[in-house]
Amino acid sequence: MHAQHMLSALEQARRAQAAGEVPVGAVIVRNGEVIAAAHNEREALGDPTAHAEVLAIRRAAERLGRRRLSDCTMYVTLEPCPMCAGAVVMAQMGCVYYGAADARAGCAGSVYALPEDPAFGRRIPCMGGLLEQECTELLGTFFEERRG
């Protein structure tokens, strides 16, 4: 079941890539149902905060009519950055699964584990490596093509 949801996040990442965005996709699931999906839209919206995770959180909160998403799980193709990890904490997400680790800016375990830091109150479990190869390859291909 986890792999199925990460495949949905990968489909979102492919949409981002097709639009010229960094290929990151996220889905939020509640009771086995995808309630929100998003991909990076920073270029399209001219908005530095339009990361897949933030957009998915906004859509899930709107759909549920509440800001707390403690009964939801996020699947995202790349480990959340500091901003997105903070958004996960503020949304009180139930847990997060990510595909590719981000050794440069990952804040769900690689550089720092912000959602699991007890200083922020509730600990939000984050597990990496779900369909890691597929997620890493998609990002790698995108950046190789951009470098030309």
Characterization of this structure:
There is one protein chain. The protein has helices at residues 2-18, 42-45, 52-64, 82-91, 132-147, and strands at residues 25-30, 33-39, 73-78, 95-100, 126-127. It is built from 5 helices and 5 strands, in the order αββααβαββα. Helix 1 (2-18) packs parallel to helix 5 and helix 3 (52-64) packs parallel to helix 4 (82-91). It has 148 residues and is an alpha/beta fold. The protein is globular and about 45 Å long. The longest helix has 17 residues, at 2-18. It is 41% helix and 18% strand. The protein has a 5-stranded mixed beta sheet.
Strand order of the largest sheet: 2-1-3-4-5
Structural class by sheet pairing and helices: alpha/beta
| SSE pattern, N- to C-terminal | HEEHHEHEEH
Helix content: 40-55%
Per DSSP, the total helix count is 5
The quaternary structure here is: single chain
Strand content bin: 15-25%
Q: So what's the overall shape?
A: globular
Q: How far apart are the first and last residues' alpha carbons, in Å?
A: 37 Å
Please mark out the parts with pLDDT under 50 across 5 or more consecutive residues, or reply none.
none
Radius of gyration: 14 Å
Number of strands: 5
Mean pLDDT: 97
User: In this structure, how is the largest beta sheet organized?
Assistant: 5 strands, mixed
